[in-house]
Amino acid sequence: MAGIKEIRTRIDSVQQTLKITNAMYLISSSKLRKARQQLNNVQPYFTKITSTIADILHHTPEMEHIYFDKRPDVAEHKVGYIVITGDKGLAGAYNHNVLHLAEEQIAKTPNSTLFVIGQVGRVYFAERGMRIDGEFMYAAQDPNIPRARDITELFIKLFRENQLDEVYIVYTEMITPMRLEPKMQKLLPLDIDAFPWSPRPGEDEPYHQTVTYVPSADKVLSQIVPGYVKGVLFGAMVESFCSEQNARMTAMDSSTNNARDMLKELSLRYNRARQAAITQEITEIVGGAQTQKAERPPLRREKPARVVRFLADGSRAQKARNESWN
After folding, report:
1. CA-CA-CA-CA torsion sign (231, 236, 237, 238)
2. pTM more than 0.85
3. Rounded to the nearest 5°, which phi and psi values hold at 208?
4. 59 near 217, Cβ under 8 Å?
5. Where does the chain have alpha helices with state H?
6. Helix 94-108 and helix 119-127, axial crossing angle in degrees, nearest 10
7. Coil vs helix vs strand at 214
8. pLDDT tens track for 13-72
């Protein structure tokens, strides 16, 4: 059994770890709420863009546009993958799952280009000798509209210049707080089926209103599609960030509970060791007292003292008197 000092040191160490895991849980909870609020604030804007694109496609079905250009799948077909991971660990299987999905998809694509958002993904692919064609630092921990816009402009440029024929995002979607799933979503080119059109609410008759786009529907699409792509990318970044924070909350909550259970066990062991030490000390004291008593030499009894008395007539009388000595 470990000594009292070792158990006391272990208890102090576990208590410090418990404070850290509990603090990380609270920080992740705060970041999750902030990111969700940020996404909810811009959601109406991107919803309106999506409905506008659907409306344009519905009224001009014969129109061909570069952002909807499905290029032939040939040997030179170039596919770009944007893999979104975290910048830190301690988030359970969050990073592992999305990296595993990305690795599977890249293995199936002979002519692929890899772009990474997040420090964990960059280190993972670098250790495996995989070429990283682009990396975006400090974007995973702080997803915002300006960064999403800068990344979107780069991929739109690569797509329009035929340097990439398809662009996919590989990220983690938080379906429920207890269910996180890695997901791959097509970013470019856009799919017409992804923009279903429906009549306005409350209208029983088919939608016959004439809509005019100035200067043309093609020009309007050229202006609003980058905003839509930016919204898709921003939504994926926020969704990944929320999934990471939720995974870290779950991991830190589990670690905190394990630390509390460990403290209970260590406290029980500490009390038992302390009780055993006290019992042993009492036993040693009692045993030492008994040994000291057994080894003490017996007391010597002195010879009776002889007392000489003189009688009244002057004669002497002897009398033995026993005295006890302590």
Report:
1. positive
2. no
3. -110, 5
4. yes
5. 4-59, 94-108, 119-127, 145-160, 217-295
6. 50
7. coil
8. 999 999 999 999 899 888 888 888 887 888 888 888 888 888 888 777 777 788 888 877
